[in-house]
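Exercise: predict the fold of this chain.
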Amino acid sequence: MVDRQQHWETVYGNKAVDQVSWFQTHAASSLRLIEGCADKDAHIIDVGGGASVLVDDLLEAGYRNLTVLDLAESALTASRTRLGARAQPVRWIAGDITQVELPAAHYDVWHDRAVFHFLTDPADKARYVEQVLKSVKPGGHVIVAAFGPGGPLQCSGLDVVRYAPDALHAEFGAPFRLLRHETETHHTPSGQDQEFVYCYCVRV
């Protein structure tokens, strides 16, 4: 965990938050999917949300019960600084999603854009899925986006796993019913195109 944490602290230490490859001016696809399944009182966790602007978009849309988790404290600090006083009601968690303690059956929506594809060890994947099973309410929604078959083989100096929609859903298994999936082409700040696959499931 320490090595993984240090890697991401270094990434955010060396690049401005709007220059990392996953930067979005607005998290349009994520916001649309969340708004399609969650009312304003829903408990939402953004896993790997660090410096992402999704929390800004959710606050602007009127959501009140938000948690942002990231391995890099510096990424969370960037978001808190950007938001100013608006950051106060958000719960900020610095920790490894495969290790951190999360409340049981608490979240209505679990959102992850670009964390799961960094988990190349089957044991880490299993721990991640266990966290989702534990912390998402039955009937809650799970939105996970990862690099698609046409995505890169590496990101930020780390190997990644690319997924077709069925393969991504299969990592989560029977407790999660796939509602739909979609593909998005993400344009990075450096001008590259990356294929992302979004899987949208319900916790049965």
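Check your answer against the key: Residues 29 and 184 are 8 Å apart (CA to CA).
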